[in-house]
Every structure is written in C-alpha cells, then in structure tokens.
Amino acid sequence: MAGSRGAGRTAAPSVRPEKRRSEPELEPEPEPEASTPCPRTEMASARIGDEYAEDSSDEEDIRNTVGNVPLEWYDDFPHVGYDLDGRRIYKPLRTRDELDQFLDKMDDPDYWRTVQDPMTGRDLRLTDEQVALVRRLQSGQFGDVGFNPYEPAVDFFSGDVMIHPVTNRPADKRSFIPSLVEKEKVSRMVHAIKMGWIQPRRPRDPTPSFYDLWAQE
User: Which of 143, 159, 174 is the last residue of a domain?
Assistant: First the structure.
C-alpha cells in the first residue's frame, strides 16, 4: 500500500531561481571636442555682423520729417513741415543782415563752401570731394573721376558691305501688298475733290505788286 501510494504521487518539479541578467554598463559618452570654426562660417558671421556698418545715417540727421516733397509748397507758410508729433516745424529766422554776412565772409575761411540745407535750415560745410564734384559739373565734365568716355566702342554695324543680312527675319506680307490705310486716305481725297471741298490753287497773278508811290504827284 505504501508503495502504491508512493508510486501514485508525482514529484514536484524543482524550480531553479532565474539568474538576473547583468545590465550592460553604460560607457561614459565622450565629451564633444571643440570643433574648429569653418572659415566660411566666420566670413558669413562677419558679413552679418557688418551688415549695417556701411549704411548711411541720413535719416538720423534729418530733423525735418516733412519727407521728400517740394519745399515750394511751404513758401507762403511760416513752417516747413511737421514733426513726429504733428506739430509744426517753423522756419529758422534769419536775422543777419548784409553787413553780418559780409563780416562772416571776411572772417570765416570756409564761407565759400558753406551752403544752407533747405530741409533743416542749418548751414552745412561742403567737403573737398563735394567741392571737386561741383567744380567738375560746372566745367562740363563727368561726375565720376574714373569714368572714361573714350573707351573703345564695339562696332556692331561697320561700313563694309556684308554678304549676309544683319537679321535673317523674313519680310512681312504687308511689304508686298498696297497699304489699306493709304488706299482709304486716297479715296477720301478723291471724294473731296469731286464734291468740290478741295479746290486747286489759283495761279499767281504775273503783274507786279509794286507801284509808283509818287505817280499822282
């Protein structure tokens, strides 16, 4: 009986404990090396940085915000425009008489190159380049010093008779038929002559038109 009981029982399977897989150790990421700057990148950044370096600051100097309108519009008014707040900008008062202007001409060595700015009413001193430009224009020369008006020109149409035409464009059909516009004009003139609207010119009188002034005396 004991044997049969022992035989009827099944042995429980032995459960082995699972071994934990060791997680792979993460290697430390290498530090990024300092990349050498690309010369093109440096040039591009330099261009971006100096983008407004050569811009002129004319708008900063113009205190009159009237804009580019003819100043003749304000000849009959005491002001020459309006500021950003909408207030009038009055014309500068010129209280200096001819004697003061003559004294300024004698005392100021740059008086001959001083002009008045019509936009702001201030006196501006012309630079040497501006004076040279004015002198060239007054003498009938070109404004640019480096301009050469006698450069060799390309002679597209020479005086020699060529075999082939300049353009190989075929002639139009209207070159071989009479003009319809001229035909209509001629028909109108013929109709006007038939109707008597156009008269031929009268022949001139062959007798002379002069006479003796003292013939009756």
Answer: 143
